[in-house]
Amino acid sequence: MNISAELDARGLNCPLPILRTKKKISELTAGETLKVLATDPGSVKDMEAFCRQTGNELVMSMQESDCFTFVVRKG
Question: Active site includes 67?
């Protein structure tokens, strides 16, 4: 998978991971992907809702230990 940009939001609590994702993805062009790392368990539902509401695609969502990894494709 080709990742265009990466955002490390580990250690940040709601709503900061989503706010930083929104800012970072605005810098990308349509079709580019953003990899987001987060430790806030609430970020799972938040990321799903963010993508649904903004027209972006949640390509991947996985958890490894206490870190959540998301890949978002800009719509």
Answer: no
